[in-house]
Amino acid sequence: MTDDLGTLTTFSPDLPGRPLVGMTVLVVEDSRFASEAMRLLCLRSGARIRRADCLRSARRHLQVYRPTAVIVDLGLPDGAGDGLIAELAQATPRVGVILATSGDDGAQARARAAGADGFLAKPITSLAAFQQAILAPLPEAAGGRALRALPDEEIHPDTFAFRDDMIHAADLLTEGADARTLDYLAQFLAGVARSARDAPLEQAAAGLADRRAQGMAAEAALARVSGLLQARISTAAPI
After folding, report:
1. Are strands 79-80 and 75-76 parallel, antiparallel or unpaired?
2. For the domain 24-142, what is the CATH superfamily, name and number?
3. What is the predicted pLDDT for the residue at 12?
4. pLDDT of res. 52
5. If you write DSSP's letter for every residue of 65-132 in order, what string do you get?
6. Residue 28: CA atoms inside 13 Å, Cβ hemisphere, count?
7. Which residue of 41, 57, 130, 186 shows the fewest CB atoms closer than 10 Å?
8. Which residues carry this modification: 4-aspartylphosphate (predicted)?
9. How far apart are CA 99 and CA 65, in angstroms?
10. pLDDT digits 0-9 by tens, 26-80
11. What pLDDT shows up at residue 174?
């Protein structure tokens, strides 16, 4: 098998704790906190990582590189990840592994319908679950194997990546956000909050999304979200 530069790649699935050596993972994710989790999972597993923060950037990557696996967040700033998953699933040659990720409980069915091989529910912290999700769809010759004993270990992203997401969200609010931006903001914050296990922020984001979906005034919900964002920026961590 060849890697993203067209050179011969030798997978080493039996290296203790590093079964993804020789693989490249493209992570399409707008959250810095979630991306940091993916970076740590790839690093601990032996895989190289490339990151795209939107659909447009992902498509640019895919014009140049051929990763072993692509992990696509379903909610991105320039559209839903379902479309990219469908493109990848129908492409020839096909990427070896296509995974979707989301903090939305109902997203797995959407991902499967689009053609994803698997689904990673946020928060993604289990090293074993991450490695198995990538290995399971691969043929044995390319590093895939049947279920195996994998390390029972969790990763913990740096809280400064979480703070970067909070600053980004606060910047969106200060720009006089339009309806589309507010809808994206609610979805973005819900995903980040779930990844960070920040229940108050997740509830506030859900409240904002509900108000928007019902066409109701959202000033109070926005004020609550804004206050929580400022509190988390000042502490650099979930509260």
Report:
1. antiparallel
2. Response regulator (3.40.50.2300)
3. 47
4. 97
5. ---SEEEEESEETTEETHHHHHHHHH-SSPPSEEEEEES-TTHHHHHHHHT-SEEEESS--BHHHHHH
6. 32
7. 57
8. 73
9. 17
10. 999 999 999 999 999 999 999 999 999 999 999 999 999 999 999 999 999 999 9
11. 81
All residue ranges of the chain with pLDDT < 50 are 1-13, 141, 146-147
Please give the pLDDT value at position 10. Answer: 40
CA 28 to chain centre: 6
Domain spans in the chain, listed from the N-terminal domain onward: 24-142, 159-235
Residue in 131, 158, 149 with CA at minimum distance from that of residue 44: 131
Structure tokens at 154: 């969790």
Instruction: Calculate the CA dihedral of residues 28, 33, 37, 42 and round it to 10 degrees.
Output: 40
Integer Cα distance of 101 and 121 in angstroms: 6
Please give the pLDDT value at position 173.
87
- State residue 218's pLDDT score: 87
Long-range CB contacts (within 8 A, 24+) of 118-125: 120/71, 122/34, 122/191, 122/194, 122/195, 123/37, 123/194, 123/195, 123/196, 123/197, 124/34, 124/37, 124/38, 124/41, 124/195, 125/37, 125/154, 125/155, 125/156
Residues 6+ apart with CB under 8 A from 184: 75, 77, 172
Q: What is the distance of C-alpha 125 from the center of its chain?
A: 12
Q: What is the pTM of this model?
A: 0.86
